[in-house]
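dumping this here so i dont lose it
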């Protein structure tokens, strides 16, 4: 591993920052890509090379990836527009791409139903590079959206408290990514990644309170009210409606749990309680 060079796109994000640290600990030569590496240099481990790049400008990716052995890719946009050019630029330089996709992509579904994530997967398949797709379920970090309300009022006002989700710890995604980036035996794998158990949203709020040492209560809120809030905050009414409909379905039918994190990494997937302990400070008054 010591003589490998790996480019990490999204290196400043929830998942990417752990990939950078783990690879660096393993002695891999890491290039951490950001649109503005000067923004937060203190978070980058010593020895990691900061590179400037933008997924919207493929030529910057070509330069950042030149001579590397593999690249970690995420696609932080709402549509796949520009993905073919970005992926082609990467594939012209690296033989292997590990892509952070989503659990919603299904091989048996028509491509138009697999949305942006499926289209980026297709662009990678077309590129000729070896690939591994990490089809992640909902991230536990999504619960950070409740942090302001918990901090200021000790409450989560949201819909469908009994919806049960198998949210995944970002460190587990990073651990799987590191395996796939450093070992070609994962080429061609489509890993469906979840947390180790389905936890209701009301229990998630309770576990955050326990971890942070704060009283946190769940206040069940009418779906129409949450729909309006979500549509306003995302600017995407169709997305908000789809999300509400999906959460409603999870009351009767909890999200599935896969054993893939354990199978790939050799350690069990981290629980939501562990995630809440790791992020306790994010929910405490500042
Ligand atoms: N949240 C979920 O439940 C979920 C589930 C499945 C899949 N996903 C996927 O996970 C990804 C988000 O991962 P995350 O939470 O680790 O990221 P994040 O914390 O949201 O950070 C976004 C990252 O993308 C980088 N970025 C944004 N625009 C860029 C651009 N134009 N060019 C290059 N880099 C750019 C940012 O880097 P700089 O700002 O430093 O440039 C940052 O490192 C998304 O692609 C999402 O589709 C999310």
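and the seq i came up w/
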């Amino acid at each position: 591993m010591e003589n490998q060079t790996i480019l990490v796109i999204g290196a400043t994000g929830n998942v990417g920052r752990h990939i950078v640290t783990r690879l660096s600990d393993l002695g891999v030569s890491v290039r951490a890509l950001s649109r503005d590496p000067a923004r937060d240099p203190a978070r980058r481990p010593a020895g990691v090379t900061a590179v400037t790049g933008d997924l919207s400008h493929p030529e910057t990716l070509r330069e950042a990836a030149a001579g590397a052995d593999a690249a970690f890719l995420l696609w932080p946009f709402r549509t796949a527009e520009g993905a073919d050019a970005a992926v082609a630029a990467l594939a012209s330089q690296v033989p292997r791409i590990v892509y952070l996709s989503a659990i919603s992509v299904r091989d048996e579904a028509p491509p138009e139903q697999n949305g942006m994530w499926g289209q980026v997967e297709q662009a990678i398949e077309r590129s000729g590079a070896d690939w591994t797709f990490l089809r992640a379920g909902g991230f536990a970090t999504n619960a950070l959206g409740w942090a302001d309300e918990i901090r200021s009022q000790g409450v989560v006002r949201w819909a469908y408290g009994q919806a049960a989700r198998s949210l995944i710890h970002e460190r587990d995604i990073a651990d799987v990514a590191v395996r796939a980036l450093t070992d070609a035996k994962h080429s061609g794998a489509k890993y469906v990644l979840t947390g180790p158990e389905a936890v209701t949203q009301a229990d998630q709020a309770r576990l955050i309170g326990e971890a942070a040492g704060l009283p946190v209560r769940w206040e069940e809120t009418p779906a129409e009210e949450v729909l309006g809030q979500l549509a306003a905050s995302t600017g995407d009414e169709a997305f908000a409606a789809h999300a509400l409909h999906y959460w409603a379905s999870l009351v009767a039918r909890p999200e599935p749990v896969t054993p893939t994190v354990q199978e790939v990494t050799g350690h069990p997937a981290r629980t939501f309680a562990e995630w809440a302990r790791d992020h306790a400070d994010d929910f405490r008054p500042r």
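The radius of gyration is 19 Å.
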